[in-house]
């Protein structure tokens, strides 16, 4: 099976290499320079986790999480963002019936984040369609049973890799029926869009909810690539944007490309989407990043590091190109790996630098306990030290670039100032034990929250340099 992965990967890498060589001869597209903004219009740098994969399999569809977990995460890493996993099966347990008790329990957990200054993005999560794809419910999450139509086609249980379930006839048919590729279920996409309307209606006035990630890692079934992204996927997004905007004019809407290929660096064909909110658009692009060499089982060391860095370059160029087409800011909705593998911390640093330099928010996959996450068996792992990184939580202007120089212990925030408010910077204890100093403006240090708030003049391009107090 590992050989199969390698063959598949070699083909994709060859395609990327071809594209990469061609792309290398063109100017790299400039960073989109667009940001998700808060209600005051300040640019937000979203830095957080996916919370949590456990929601996929809990009977109530809620992540295994306590308020103490949120408190520990803030104390250890100063994050300001969470991609919070929802399950359609829990939102709409039967057609047209929305479970407000479930949404109230989600609201309780959002409050844990709100009191600590977090922004919450609600993610309608699915993998493999839903847990109804096998009788024993061993695979899949997201969609309810009543929306799962496999038309009697088989799904062989016991797949050696979970991704292979996507290629099973029954799973492809479940997706084909949802996208109405079969013509047999024209109602399902409307139901999905109306489920989002119910969620948006419940959370539209919650100041912590920054927005909605409409579908996790969409899969087109028998329709793939540009035909899928510009066809049924774009249709679903337009339907859902309209339903959400009918009740919620202000929350951000986050749109993902198809996962296959784009996660690794291949281009997405996702088109521009109009935002009918009657003001500046609040549509963001939310890809994922899983470098193929690592997906194929390699580590970020030696020769594979060079290959991985090359695929990161392709991923960056293709993502920036799609974001430019969409006129949208970028949130990296998922990236992650087994932190016990050689080179893992270096890769996370590399991706944090990439997101800083290219105006992207980021959510690590995932917050769950274990070797991928920040905590394993209750103890802090290597990710905590890497993710406790100085960063501007909010910027009183349009950021041009953010550079964290660990050797010089210097954070430089270059931005075009405007009247949107002060710049707030998180400074971890490891590198800023006594807080920080600002090279311009007036600064106030909140030792409890570890946030330096810098008030600067409100026009012109500024280079704000933060150094240890
Ligand atoms: C064949 N298809 C459609 C496919 C293959 C592989 C992934 C994947 O690895 N995704 C990366 C991570 N994202 C999910 C949660 O969103 C995690 O379970 C994966 O590790 C996705 C789709």
From TrEMBL:
Its signal peptide is 1-23
**UniProt-listed PANTHER family:** ENDOGLYCOCERAMIDASE, PTHR31308
Give every Glycoside hydrolase family domain span.
Answer: 47-368
Q: What is this protein called?
A: Cellulase family glycosylhydrolase
List, alphabetically, the InterPro entries matched.
GH, GH5_C, Glyco_hydro_5, Glyco_hydro_b, Glycosphingolipid_Hydrolases
Keyword presence, Signal: yes
Any keyword RNA-binding?
no
Q: Which domain of life is it from?
A: Bacteria
Please name the source species: Nonomuraea typhae
- The chain positions of domain Glycoside hydrolase family 5 C-terminal read 389-458
Which of UniProt's keywords are assigned here? Glycosidase, Hydrolase, Signal
Task: State the similarity comment.
Answer: Belongs to the glycosyl hydrolase 5 (cellulase A) family.
């Amino acid at each position: 099976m590992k050989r199969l992965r390698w063959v598949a990967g070699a083909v994709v890498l060859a395609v990327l290499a071809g594209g990469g060589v061609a792309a290398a001869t063109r100017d790299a597209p400039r960073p989109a320079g667009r940001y998700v903004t808060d209600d005051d219009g300040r640019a937000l740098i979203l830095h957080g986790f996916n919370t949590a994969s456990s929601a996929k399999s809990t009977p109530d569809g809620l992540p295994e999480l306590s308020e103490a977990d949120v408190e520990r995460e803030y104390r250890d890493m100063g994050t300001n963002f969470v991609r919070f996993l929802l399950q359609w099966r829990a939102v709409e347990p039967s057609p047209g019936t929305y479970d407000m008790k479930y949404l109230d329990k989600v609201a309780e957990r959002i409050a844990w984040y709100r009191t600590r200054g977090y922004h919450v993005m609600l993610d309608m999560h699915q993998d493999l369609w839903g847990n109804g794809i096998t009788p024993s419910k061993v695979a899949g999450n997201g969609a309810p049973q009543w929306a799962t139509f496999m038309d009697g086609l088989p799904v062989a249980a016991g797949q050696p890799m979970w991704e292979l379930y996507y290629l099973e006839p029954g799973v492809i048919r479940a997706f084909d029926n949802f996208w109405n590729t079969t013509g047999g279920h024209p109602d399902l996409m409307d139901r999905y869009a109306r489920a989002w309307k119910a969620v948006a209606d419940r959370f539209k006035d919650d100041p912590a909810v920054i927005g909605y990630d409409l579908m996790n890692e969409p899969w087109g079934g028998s329709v793939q690539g540009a035909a899928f992204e510009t066809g049924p996927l774009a249709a679903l997004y337009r339907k859902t944007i309209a339903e959400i905007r009918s009740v919620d004019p202000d929350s951000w809407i986050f749109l993902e490309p198809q996962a296959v290929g784009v996660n690794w660096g291949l281009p997405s064909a996702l088109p521009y989407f109009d935002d009918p909110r009657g003001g500046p658009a609040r549509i963001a692009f939310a890809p994922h990043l899983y470098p193929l060499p690592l997906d194929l089982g390699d580590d970020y060391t030696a020769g594979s590091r060079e290959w991985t860095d090359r695929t990161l370059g392709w991923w960056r160029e293709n993502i920036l190109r799609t974001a430019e087409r969409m006129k949208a800011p970028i949130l990296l909705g998922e990236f992650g790996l087994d932190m016990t593998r050689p080179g893992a911390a270096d890769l996370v640093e590399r991706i944090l630098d990439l997101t800083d330099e290219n105006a992207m928010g980021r959510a690590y996959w995932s917050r769950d306990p274990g070797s991928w996450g920040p905590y394993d068996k209750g103890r802090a792992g290597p990710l905590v030290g890497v993710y406790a990184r100085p960063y501007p939580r909010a910027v009183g202007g349009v950021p041009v670039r953010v550079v964290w120089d660990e050797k010089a212990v210097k954070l430089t925030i270059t931005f075009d100032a405007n009247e949107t408010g002060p710049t707030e910077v998180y400074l971890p204890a490891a590198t800023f034990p006594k807080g920080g100093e600002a090279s311009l403006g007036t600064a106030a240090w909140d030792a409890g929250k570890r946030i330096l708030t810098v008030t600067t003049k409100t026009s012109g391009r500024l280079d704000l340099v933060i150094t240890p107090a």
